[in-house]
Design a protein that fits this description.
4-stranded antiparallel β-sheet; 1 helix; about 200 residues
Length: about 200
């Protein structure tokens, strides 16, 4: 498995600055539900000019999500497509049993732009958040920072609950952010952690 070059190891809770970034090219990713009765295909966009730090680069279509549902004959039927909030691609995404889905971060831009976005099964946006929305101006100075990213999430801790109602992700302060997949609201659960491993992009697995 390739790694995101300078996000090599562990992000200390206090957070030393990281110096550079080297990202793999974004590629389409496919995510299945646990029961494999639905899958989501995310196709990268081409609006590099809307990525933080790439001012002046070409702009174009944003990333899109294609939704599919399993049929009685075991084939999958395409049910629709939706434009995502990501100029190129989300870094990670989760699919709930009912088809709702949540995306995290942006290609080359962990911690910038819409870092969380929640969608209904038909792709209708429910809610999206920037890092300032999630932390309300608190603690952001402590986020480990590189040239292009703010590493606020920790791997491998991000998942959708079995009933599909909530999605969880661990964050750099050691706590958990819990997102309601129905209305997009969230709550914070404090915690402690000694180290924070940077999430790998799903297309880099």
């Amino acid at each position: 498995m390739r790694t995101v070059a300078v996000f090599l190891a562990l992000c200390a809770l206090g957070g030393a600055r990281m110096l550079a970034d080297d990202w793999p090219q974004a590629r389409p990713i496919t995510i299945f539900t646990e029961a494999a009765d639905r899958f989501l295909r995310i196709v990268p966009g081409r609006s590099v000019g809307d990525v933080f730090g790439f001012s002046g680069a070409p702009k174009g279509p944003y990333a899109t999500a294609e939704m599919y549902v399993r049929q009685p004959d075991r084939s999958y039927r395409f049910t629709g497509a939706a434009t995502l909030v990501n100029p190129v691609a989300p870094v990670n995404a989760l699919l709930a049993p009912d088809g709702a889905f949540i995306t995290f971060d942006n290609w080359h831009n962990l911690g910038y732009g819409k870092v969380v976005a929640i969608y209904r099964a038909d792709g209708t946006p429910i809610k999206s958040y920037t890092l300032d929305d999630l932390y309300r101006g608190r603690d952001l100075a402590r986020v480990p920072t590189s040239v292009s990213s703010r590493t606020w999430r920790c791997a491998p801790f991000f998942f959708v609950a079995p009933d599909g109602r909530e999605a969880y992700t661990r964050e750099f302060l050691g706590g958990e952010l819990v997102f309601d997949m129905r209305d997009g609201s969230f709550r914070y659960m404090p915690g402690t952690v000694k180290e924070c491993v940077v999430p790998q992009p799903q297309w880099d697995r």
